[in-house]
Design goal:
It is a single chain. The protein has 15 helices and 16 strands. The strands form 3 sheets. Strands 1, 2, 3, 4, 7, 8, 10, 11, 13, 14, 15 and 16 form a 12-stranded mixed β-sheet that branches. A two-stranded antiparallel sheet has the order 5-6. The protein is α/β, with parallel strands linked by helices. It is globular.
């Protein structure tokens, strides 16, 4: 209830206490009408989802979806999926999970990475009136934690703004909107306030996770309510904003046998820091032209995978095989590029038909008219300001405050290679408490890890790519469940 609603409620109650019986009844009716009107200013009730299109039977977990307004002036609302822990939701940690990319939907995290459902890889006929089928994921992180998946920034996934100005955000503003989101969400879900709370994100989302966590910690220090039980955060193959995020690709690709000794030495000799995308001399430019040709030969998200078409077109993306779907079936206006089924991107392709289906939208509680067409990522068609130039200081601050931090890297990622992540973690200059060693699953090494003072852990995921749970779901669940419960890897 807003303060304006409280004022009217108090005024009506005063009149009711002084009026005759007949007048009191009339005033009581007016009071109820006013109460309903002002209650409409509150956040709409969430949707409890018990079944989903494409999944056989009732969901074996509790799923809630909903919107939270984060910019009243422009009518901007963030959409979320909240899944209760399949363990003990009363005590298990709650994790806010954010997806990277350029306004990529959190549905990617839910269906391809760490959520309890996955698309079944099978041929799909978009004209037969069905949606892609789903199956249960036995390696979901919801086995040990409740996860709040949020479509952020505004414009990602099903999040939207009534005024186009609401899409004009960046690292800082979108992080502050997420802080506002959490304040409202926990106010409406007070039963989870006592649960250990963590913030998590991968790829570009890893850039603002420590900034958001620091802002939440400052609110806790200031005694602002509701007070969350923030314990720390985790980031996977994270961007920092530093140039080494991408310059580390050169030594990584050299070590992986993708660029030659000669080319590696030429780049080292003639290119300086910051030259990778903007060479300052002719010899560096020539060397980087050759480097880029070789880089284009690989799947940069996992160097051992098949190189496939990128399935994240802009809205109304057209192809020579464009097929318009019937409006009664869904709102997808054109088919995205179709990769072979043996590509990881095939699931991305299926997601377009699932999320743009009218029945799916109705079950999820999607606002009618809020999204003309759902896309997995926006790829630069909406404004965004990269105004956190480097997040290293936030990592340092949060570690010094004693919060638990997990930094992990898939060791076959060429987008943000583990070399760059290992380098900045080491640059924090914290003493080592557990030397570099292997960690194991079923008697086999699953990666390598090192632990520093103040609860900072860095680990690699053997065989993992840019989004490690996509490639190594069992190893990533083992890593997450051990770390979130306070056990050594």
């Amino acid at each position: 209830m807003s303060s304006r609603g409280d004022f009217h409620r108090e005024s009506m109650e005063a009149k009711l206490s002084q009026a005759p019986l007949r007048l009191r009844l009339r005033l009581h009716l007016v009071f109820l009408l006013l109460l309903c009107f002002f209650s409409s200013e509150a956040e709409p009730a969430p949707t409890v989802v018990t079944t989903l299109p494409g999944f056989d039977g009732a969901l074996p977990f509790r799923l809630e979806t909903g919107y939270v307004t984060v910019d009243e002036e422009n009518g901007a609302e963030l959409f979320y999926y909240f899944i209760d822990s399949e363990g003990d939701p009363r005590r298990d940690p709650v994790v806010l999970w954010l997806t990277g990319g350029d306004r990529c939907t959190t549905l990617s995290a839910l269906y391809f990475e760490r959520g309890p459902l996955k698309f079944i890889t099978e041929p799909y006929n978009q004209n037969n009136g069905t949606v892609p089928r789903l199956r249960y994921n036995p390696y979901s992180w919801t086995k040990v934690a409740s996860i709040l998946f949020v479509d952020s920034p505004v414009g990602a996934g099903f999040s939207f703004s009534r005024n186009p100005k609401g899409y004009d955000v960046g690292d800082v503003s979108s992080s502050l909107q997420l802080k506002k989101f959490l304040t409202k969400w926990f106010t409406e879900h007070p039963n989870y306030l006592a649960n250990p709370f963590y913030v998590g994100g991968d790829s570009y989302a890893g850039k603002f996770v420590p900034f958001l966590a620091q802002k939440i910690s400052e609110d806790i220090e200031d005694g602002l309510r509701p007070v969350t039980n923030l314990k720390g955060y985790l980031v996977g193959n994270p961007v920092t904003g530093e140039s080494n995020d991408f310059e580390s690709r050169v030594p990584f690709l050299h070590g992986a046998g993708i660029i030659s000794d000669q080319l590696y030495e030429t780049i080292k000799e003639h290119c300086q820091a910051g030259d990778l995308f903007n060479p300052k001399n002719v010899l560096c430019a020539q060397a980087l032209d050759k480097y880029n040709q070789l880089y284009d030969e690989i799947s940069d998200e996992h160097i051992l995978h098949k190189k496939c078409v990128y399935v994240s077109p802009r809205p109304n993306y057209g192809t020579t095989e464009r097929k318009i779907l019937k409006e009664k079936t869904g709102v997808l206006k054109s088919s995205p590029p179709r990769p072979p089924m043996d590509c990881h991107a095939y699931g991305n392709y299926l997601s377009y038909f699932w999320a743009n289906n009218n029945i799916t939208r109705e079950i999820l509680g999607i606002r009618k008219g809020s999204k003309k067409e759902w896309v997995r990522c926006h790829n630069g068609d909406l404004p965004y300001y990269k105004d956190i130039k480097s997040n290293i200081k936030y990592h340092h601050n949060m570690t010094r405050k004693g919060f638990r931090i997990l930094v992990y890297s898939g060791d076959h990622d060429a987008v943000v290679p583990f070399l760059s992540t290992q380098s900045w973690v080491r640059s924090l200059n914290f003493p080592i408490v557990d030397e570099w060693r292997a960690w194991h699953l079923d008697g086999q090494s699953s990666g390598f890890t090192i632990t520093y003072t103040d609860n900072l852990t860095f680990t690699t995921i053997k065989g993992g790519g840019h989004i490690a749970p996509v490639d190594q779901p069992e190893r990533c669940l083992a890593m997450f469940s051990r770390w979130i419960s306070g056990e050594p890897l």
